[in-house]
Design a protein that fits this description.
By secondary structure, this protein is of the alpha/beta class. It has one domain: TIM Barrel (Alpha-Beta Barrel), CATH 3.20.20. Helix content is about 35%, strand content about 15%. The protein has 16 helices and 13 strands. An 8-stranded parallel beta sheet has the order 7-2-1-13-12-11-10-9. The longest helix has 15 residues. Belongs to the glycerophosphoryl diester phosphodiesterase family.
């Protein structure tokens, strides 16, 4: 990776000097250190209720008590980090209806799968700002879909500024849990995320003092960030994992053999602890489902994560019946919201001793933790 530094005009003199020296003064307290309760991470904002990664989704999440909000990060053609869950814009924007961009529809291999659509790295920020966000699963979330077309896409810097403003307004320190998406893909397109990300953190007073937990499904980018950022009071690194024989994209690209299943073993977890602070498997890796869709017995992963000295966080709780274990569904139909069932399911997983969890509906996560 090559070093990337924001232009000096974006930095205060004090920040520029500190960034250049590689020393940023940080507070001694991380949000989690001041509270014993599990952290509620707003997955793409309050994405069960508002189109994901919009100001509306983030505002709703903060109002509903989220401890952290999540901006997934991808990169535009002109090198700007923006908040989108994936490089493919097709499902979460109105790009397919925009005739001026029809010729940019193409196919790309992204994280091991071929996608056909419109990709963020084919758009400048100015072009991207003409698009509007839409609900990804309108059949399950019609309440969110009513906001289609209302909100523009956000840069990472805009997200930071918004969270800082909300923190100042509410008097509550609100964390950020950014995910670097598809690092290997963007590096191959000469749009490496990591140094842009580091420079953005250094350019903002809020991210020099507020809690930031950086996540990725890849390994090399987290190792790189640990080397560049060191161990700081307000920063943590989260290793996201899939299950079984699945592999991180960077491992595949390098011809390696490491699997997520191997990473979840006692030895694998000790290896992760050398560069990360948190291990974050999907919920069903912690408590899998039986054939009838109900919860089975917990796996050893939670115990093994603790033994390795790592934090345990998980993803993602969603409030519709279709996403719940059979134990917690009601008779309202697969697309129906089931708030009581979602809270009950979260509480079952909290019995494992979670340090934090992602939820599409932070109000329900807050209820599960505080109730």
């Amino acid at each position: 990776m090559t070093d990337f530094i924001l232009p000096r005009r974006h930095l205060s003199r004090r920040t520029f000097i500190a960034a250049a020296a590689g020393t940023l003064l940080l507070p001694a307290v991380h949000a989690a250190d001041a509270k014993a309760k599990p952290l509620v991470f707003a997955h793409r904002g309050a994405s069960a209720l508002r189109p994901e990664h919009t100001l509306a989704a983030y505002a709703k999440a903060i109002a509903d008590g989220a401890d952290y909000i999540e901006p997934d990060l991808v990169c535009t053609k002109d090198g700007v980090l923006v908040a989108r869950h994936e490089a493919d814009l097709t499902e979460t924007t109105d790009v397919a209806k925009r005739s001026e961009f029809a010729s940019r529809r193409t196919s790309r291999k992204l994280d091991g799968e071929t996608h056909t659509g419109w990709f963020v790295d084919d758009f400048t920020l100015v072009e991207l700002k003409t698009l509007r966000a839409v609900e990804r699963i309108p059949q399950s979330r019609p309440g969110s879909a009513q906001y289609d077309g209302m909100f523009q896409l956000l840069t990472f810097e805009e997200v930071i500024d918004f969270v800082a403003a909300q923190s100042a307004t509410t008097g509550r320190l609100i964390g950020l849990v950014p995910e670097l998406k598809s690092s290997t893909y963007f590096a191959a397109h000469r749009l490496a995320l990591e140094d842009r990300f580091i420079a953005t953190l250094a350019a903002h007073e809020y991210t020099r003092r507020a809690p930031v937990e950086i996540q990725s499904f890849e390994v090399a980018n987290l190792r790189y960030l640990r080397d560049k950022l060191g161990r700081r009071a307000n920063l943590r690194l989260m290793q996201l994992v899939g299950v079984g024989a699945m592999q991180p994209s960077d491992v595949i690209a390098a011809g390696g053999k490491l699997t997520y299943g191997a990473m979840a073993t006692p030895q694998g977890l000790r290896d992760v602890a050398a560069y990360a602070d948190t291990f974050a498997p999907p919920t069903r890796a912690l408590i899998p489902l039986k054939k009838d869709g109900s919860l089975d017995a917990p796996t050893p992963i939670a115990t093994d994560v603790r033994a390795a000295g790592l934090r345990l966080e998980t993803w993602t709780f969603r409030p519709e019946n279709r996403f719940l274990a059979a134990d917690f569904r009601n008779a309202a139909g697969e697309h129906a919201r089931n708030e009581a069932g979602s809270v009950a399911e979260i509480r079952r997983y909290l019995q494992l001793g979670l340090d934090g969890f992602f939820t599409d509906d932070p109000a329900l996560g807050r209820a599960a933790v505080d109730g």
